[in-house]
Specification:
With 235 residues, the chain is of the alpha+beta class. It has a domain of 153 residues: minor pseudopilin epsh fold, CATH 3.55.40. The strands form 3 sheets. Strands 1, 2, 5, 6, 8 and 9 form a 6-stranded antiparallel sheet that branches. It has a 4-stranded antiparallel sheet with strand order 7-10-11-12, with helices on one face. The protein has a two-stranded antiparallel ribbon with strand order 3-4. A hairpin with a 2-residue loop joins β3 and β4.
């Protein structure tokens, strides 16, 4: 009877030991799986940024060719707050300001107050020594030029509004800017003569960085897997 009891206790002990070993193996497997999942998540986010860079590269090249073939000035609009971009074109004549845009807190400085001051001065004919009729004619001509140069959405099924993934951040530097913009809107212009602006467009997610470097003479885009510095000649 005593021998039988010892056998039962020994069997129960062996069963408890096997259960603990199984639990230990299960925890080890779970730990290994968790270690494998973390790099996989980082890989997915990296793929998203890389895919966004590839798609944007194609749009830039397409709009460069479109402007040259159509004879219309075009531009890409980057909405940095909404993480979106799209294309626009105009029938009118368009010339960029020769001075680089000033920035404040990562966005273009607000120059609406200066524009309002100029409009009031233009409306006051005495400022320029003009008659009321001449001032009215000047205002009408200004409106005509602005209307012609107004950009409208580029209606083409090939290039629609593009929305970046939520985890992909966007920043833009273009040659008419002094600094890289991280807020507001930025514009990359294309001209019928077959050139565009120097530009560096930054896409990032986590530790994954991609810089799209645009060539002004060819419209070609080189993608670097790092955050490139701005050109040295901006001072």
């Amino acid at each position: 009877m005593k021998i039988q009891k010892n056998r039962i206790l020994s069997l129960a002990s062996d069963q408890r030991g096997l259960t603990l070993i199984e639990i230990g193996i299960s925890l080890l497997i779970v730990g290994l799986l968790m270690m494998a999942v973390v790099p996989s998540i980082e890989g997915v986010t990296g793929v998203r940024a890389r895919e966004a860079a590839g798609k944007m590269t194609g749009v830039i090249r397409y709009m460069y060719n479109q402007s040259a073939l159509s004879g219309q000035p075009c531009r890409m609009v980057f909405d940095l707050d909404q993480k979106a971009y799209w294309a626009e074109c105009t029938q009118g004549h368009f010339v960029l300001n020769s001075e680089r845009e000033e920035a404040r807190d990562g966005a273009k400085s607000d120059d609406s107050a200066e524009q309002e001051r100029l409009d009031r001065a233009l409306q006051d004919s005495s400022t320029f020594g003009l008659s009321e009729d001449d001032a009215a004619a000047m205002q009408a001509e200004k409106k005509r030029i602005l209307d012609q140069a107004e950009f409208a959405d580029f209606t083409d099924d090939t290039v629609g509004k593009q929305q970046l993934p939520k985890d992909v951040d966007l920043a833009v530097w273009v040659d008419h800017q002094r600094d890289k913009y991280t807020k507001g809107k930025a514009y990359l212009y294309f001209f019928p003569q077959g050139y565009t602006e120097r530009a560096q467009i930054y896409l990032s997610t986590g530790d994954n960085f991609y810089t799209l470097k645009v060539s002004p003479l060819t419209g070609k885009v080189k993608v670097a897997g790092e955050e490139l510095e701005l050109p040295k000649d901006l001072e």
